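Lab notebook, bench 4. Still working through the backlog of constructs that have no structural model yet. Next entry is a single chain of 148 residues. Request: give me the structure tokens for it.
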Amino acid sequence: MSFDYDLDFDNIDFRKEPDKYRVGRGEQGVLMVEPYKGEILPHWRFKTPEIAKESSEKIYQLFEEYKEKNDFVGMDMARKFIQMGYTRARRYANYKGGKKYDKEGEINPREINDEKAESARIFEEKWKIVRTDEEYLKKKKEHQKKYG
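Model written out:
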């Protein structure tokens, strides 16, 4: 089932109501699902490789804490933030200022930024770990079977 953007995100605590959460595709809902957004977003950074390393490790630590608490929604949200760390850092690595398109909607030329590319690589390493975590995959399948 796809991510439901019609929910009242301002008033739903997904920790208390995990049945309302849908995994969706990729990073869908990453900046909407509370209380996880508030717990994870303050740690999400990728400006330099050093910052990306600290950020990805902290978010991975949160992933592990959610796993220990049997909190699939938290695990999935941590996975989404790690994935977004990779995709956003990659965008900034490829395009100056992270802007893929110009004002006319044409694709800007690529200008590779090695520092941002390294930040993306750091997040990608953690993303590979979380998206293949056996317990995460098991809980994801259970959640989708139970709630859609």
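Notes after review: Residues 72-94 form the longest helix (23 residues). The chain has a mean pLDDT of 96. Flag for follow-up if needed.
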